[in-house]
Design goal:
The complex is a heterodimer.
Chain A lengths: L1 H5 L3 H27 L1 H7 L1 H29 L6 H27 L21 H22 L6 H24 L12
Chain B lengths: L1 H25 L6 H8 L35 H5 L6 H9 L1 H4 L13 H15 L7
Helix pairs in contact in B: 2-6, 4-6
């Protein structure tokens, strides 16, 4: 397992956990800033606010699916303890994203989507720990691209900033998952 | 007189050249499906080929009316759009979804590079005819 090889030194894993904890703090900072500006957001009103709420709702739908996907991975019985801990940590980040998005959509006057009763995942292809990691990495990379595509279309720059904060977090997930798979963690200088 | 004819001919040629350029700008380029597969990775936060996710499935896309996958909750805007998906309509939509269908739930800036759009469309077309889509 490349993840365990790379994370063999206890200090490396501790450092990774500390790093993840700090990234959570960064997101919380953006979340506070976003929520603090809620009156200004709501006051804008009109189609631009409705459009922003729609964009956030699509992101919320994807976050809710990601939470469910990590749950499938966590319950698969395929993950070793260290990888399981990592998956649960990442799932926790997605829960924070979903919570923030949901509250913000409501404050914009929108109706946040709910988690589906059932999600479709390619579970028949998940036979090993690496399969689970690769599946998660694919979702995280897609999420980075989705947020990257959303950032420029928000009318409200505070929302764009919050989306960029989430993008950064999910890019870190993707890099660490790639690292765990033994792939180059950051394969290029730019994302698309 | 000869000068007038030559001027008119020059204008006609210039207009023809402009028309040809406009036509080529509107035409969808021939894409590379393998390059398009990599670009499709950007869509995987919300879409899959064979099943609905945050966005609708892409199998069966070509020739399908927008907003018509049974059981998928589309935006009103997409349902009203009357778009039928083909190379041209996809090219226009993917270039800037929010402009092409104002009110769409696809809050995405778009694939601005023409060649990348062509590659992506070529991949979607190929995948739609492959075992990935039960063909």
């Amino acid at each position: 397992m490349s993840f365990l090889i790379l994370g063999n030194a206890p200090n490396a894993f501790e450092a990774r956990r500390a790093f993840l904890g700090k990234s959570g703090l960064l997101l919380s900072g953006a979340a506070v800033a976003l929520l603090a500006g809620r009156d200004a957001l709501a006051a804008e009103g009109g189609e631009s606010t409705a459009s922003d709420a729609r964009i956030l709702n699509t992101a919320l739908g994807a976050e809710l699916e990601a939470i469910a996907a990590y749950q499938v991975g966590a319950e698969s019985g395929l993950l070793q303890k260290a990888v399981l801990d990592l998956a649960v940590t990442f799932q926790g980040h997605h829960k924070e994203h979903a919570d923030l998005l949901s509250k913000t959509i409501a404050k914009l006057g929108g109706k946040p989507v709910s988690a589906k009763n059932k999600y479709t995942f390619p579970t028949d292809t998940l036979k090993t720990q690496n399969d689970v990691l690769r599946f998660a990495a694919t979702l995280e990379k897609g999420a980075v691209s989705a947020y990257l595509g959303a950032v420029p279309v928000f009318s409200n720059r505070d929302l764009a900033k919050a989306a960029a904060s989430i993008l950064g977090d999910e890019a870190m997930h993707w890099a660490i998952l790639r690292n765990a798979l033994g792939e180059v963690p950051v394969p290029s200088a730019f994302m698309s | 007189m000869f000068r007038l004819v030559r001027t008119l001919a020059g204008i006609a040629l210039a207009l023809a050249a402009c028309a040809a350029t406009a036509a080529s700008n509107n035409a969808v380029l021939r894409g590379d499906p393998s390059a398009g597969e990599a670009i499709y990775g950007r869509c995987l936060a919300c879409h899959a080929l064979a099943y609905d996710r945050t966005g609708p499935r892409h199998c069966g896309l070509f020739g399908r009316r927008a907003g018509s996958v049974k059981g998928f909750a589309y935006s009103d805007a997409m349902q009203r759009s009357k778009i039928v998906w083909n190379e041209k309509t996809l090219d226009r939509f993917l270039a800037n979804p929010l402009t092409a269908v104002p009110g769409t739930a696809m809050g995405y800036a778009g694939v601005t590079d023409r060649m990348e759009r062509a590659d992506l469309i070529a991949y979607l077309k190929q995948a739609g005819e492959s075992p990935l889509c039960g063909k």
